[in-house]
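Hallway conversation turned thread

IA: we were arguing at lunch whether anyone had actually written out Tetraspanin end to end. Turns out nobody had. So, for the record, here is the sequence (251 residues) and right after it the structure tokens. Reply here if something looks off.
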Amino acid sequence: MVAGCAPKIAKLLLILFNIAVWAVGCVLLSIGSWITYYATLFQDLFISDDLTVVSSLVIAAGVLLFIFSFMGCCGAWKEGTFLLKLYFVLLVVFLCIQATAGIIAFTFVSEIYDSMLEGMTTTINMTYGYYDSATYAVDTIQKEFNCCGALGPSDYRGCQGLQNNQSVPGSCCKTEGNGCQFGENASPGKPDPTKVDLINYNGCVEESLDYVEHYFYVLGGICIGVLVIEVTALVMICIFIRGIKKGKEVA
């Protein structure tokens, strides 16, 4: 039995901390799955697979936290020093991995603009109108953020997938079905002057960037919170193990 008031408090806190870590692990699994799902849908809008890499790291972190929290609770409840020491070592290793993953994630945030600009521009010029996935990705983001093209409607000057003498896709219209993409004087990337007030002129990269960055910073905030819990758990483990040893000496 653990001896001393501080070790007993450390045991209780360690169990509570690991329950919290378990909950965070579940949250990270959910976020990672969500990012993976949307990365698949909108992969045509990015030139690289960094988003998939980040989502994989988040899922891996969630799984490891789930396993570690279970191990920590068992070790604390049964007062097993071997399991607690193993948990301590694995948690230190995970902290190093977590720091690396955080650096990769925040590095990607700084590269989102260039990746999306190049990816969306290439998709508009090469695959929009020809591949369903590319068309769906571009149309969806234009409708969702009330934007048109990567930087503006002029990005469609080189688009080969426009149909029926369209200047831009219908998803660029402020109101669905208002016919902004048509006109006697319309050409790819150059809307009819009489229809300019019916088209969204803001580029999608700028309009969606704040949204994407917001979720990455939320994820970063969660990771920092987990980091604080993990460091505190390491301290609690040390205090708890010392209490177990003293309890054995007293017995």
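OS: looked through it. The longest helix spans residues 204-250.
IA: good, adding that to the notes. The chain has a mean pLDDT of 80.
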